[in-house]
Design goal:
heterodimer; A: Rossmann fold; 3-stranded parallel β-sheet; 6 helices; B: alpha/beta; Beta Polymerase, domain 2; two-stranded parallel ribbon; 4 helices; 9 strands
């Protein structure tokens, strides 16, 4: 994730910087203002006062993909829409995260068998970090998904070089 | 208050329009059966006769019955508080294939609401409404092939590069297999340290070639 990933060996400095950068990233997740179908209604409830996503720093939906870190895909992705979803994702800057919200986005849902123009899960188009099944999922489920994403981000390696990558590189340099 | 379906049917029969058939299922869901040729004349009468005053066309829909295609119309009157269902059918010839389009006259000249309803039926069932002002697809992309609600429809595996099958390989995995090497490449001398070895410009074979532009950029 990102150009900086795995560029330096693990040491006390990079570990500390990792922690700081990850804390910054997970505490100011900016989702894109983007909704497709009925799941978007539940997503709006999460942004609103009752569930108050702003408690976790993700309550500022951005109006452009270029300012967003997170795209929540809420609703059936069909052949026409898939092209647009892909284009929006491509315009987002790294690091970027994807949440697939709802049964349709996780694998076609009710359209899995006879949906003639439904993409059977948005993971056929863009890589997904968190899947949230449900038709639609409760707002609590989306909150839980975002908390899970925060956990994932806090384990991310920003500068630390992973052990296998480091070994491959070291053996390459020594020859 | 308004008329019931039997009374409306009697009025239509007495009007002398050719092609008005019987009243189907009079006790359950009364439906007036019409010949396609009578459609425009009957719809005009329903709208303009002051005893009927059907101002609104709710819905135009179609059904593939294998041996025929039905087109169903729902009209109602707010002024008179009554409603009516009408059906017309086109028999399917024995040698009909996917390119066969049943022909029914358009009622868009009588009810403007029929315009988009008929476009939807053209889109999903391939009913050709003769005399329609602008018979294009309404819901599916314009380059779509076939009419998906027909019984003989063949399901597509992809559309314009977007996979539509349940067990399709994700497109980004497909790209990775073709483009990127499976293991990390050694970092060539002189590469800036803040760039991972997999970045396009750091690859030896990428040479002077500019990295491919992402779709949607610029």
């Amino acid at each position: 994730m990102g150009l900086l990933n795995n560029t330096m060996p693990a040491n006390a400095v990079t570990n500390a910087v990792d922690g700081a950068v990850n804390w910054g990233r997970k505490s100011s997740l900016w989702p894109m203002t983007f909704g497709i179908a009925c799941c978007a209604i539940e997503m709006m409830a999460v942004f609103a006062a009752t569930y108050d996503l702003d408690r976790f720093g993700a309550g500022v939906p951005r109006a452009t993909p270029r300012q967003s870190d997170l795209i929540i895909v809420p609703g059936t992705v069909n052949a026409k829409m898939a092209v647009r979803v892909k284009r929006l994702y491509d315009q987002m800057a790294e690091p970027r995260y994807v949440i697939a919200m709802g049964a349709c986005v996780c694998g076609g849902g009710p359209y899995a068998k006879w949906g003639y123009n439904t993409v059977k899960g948005v993971h056929k188009i863009i890589p997904v970090d968190i899947f949230i099944p449900g038709c639609p999922p409760r707002p609590e489920a989306l909150l839980d998904g975002i908390l899970k994403l925060r956990e994932n981000i806090s384990r991310d390696d920003v500068f630390r070089r992973r052990r296998d990558t480091a070994q491959t590189l070291d053996s390459a340099y020594s020859t | 208050m308004g008329m019931n379906e039997r009374e409306i049917h009697a009025l239509l029969t007495a009007s002398g329009i050719d092609g008005v058939g019987g009243l189907e299922q009079p006790d359950l869901d009364p439906t007036v059966v019409l010949q396609p040729s009578a459609l425009v004349e009957v719809m005009t009468l329903l709208r303009d006769d002051e005893r009927l005053a059907m101002e609104m066309l709710h819905c135009v829909t179609a059904v593939d019955r294998e041996d025929r295609v039905d087109v169903v119309y729902h009209v109602c009157s707010f002024a008179r508080h009554h409603a009516l269902t009408l059906r017309t059918s086109v028999a399917k010839p024995d040698d009909a294939d996917e390119s066969w389009h049943p022909e029914v006259p358009s009622v868009a000249s009588v009810y403007a609401a029929a315009d988009w309803h008929e476009r939807e039926q053209w889109d999903l069932l391939g009913v050709h409404f003769t005399g329609h002002p602008d018979l294009r697809r309404l819901l599916l992309p314009p380059e779509w092939i076939g009419h998906p609600l027909r019984k003989d429809y063949v399901y597509p595996s992809e559309h314009g590069g977007i996979p539509l099958e349940l067990d399709a390989v994700p497109i980004y995995e497909r790209d990775e297999r073709e483009d990127t090497p499976p293991v990390a490449e050694p970092r060539p001398a002189g590469t800036p340290l803040n760039q991972p070895p997999s970045a396009p410009s750091a690859r030896p074979h990428a040479g002077g070639k500019a990295p491919a532009k992402k779709e949607g950029e610029g």
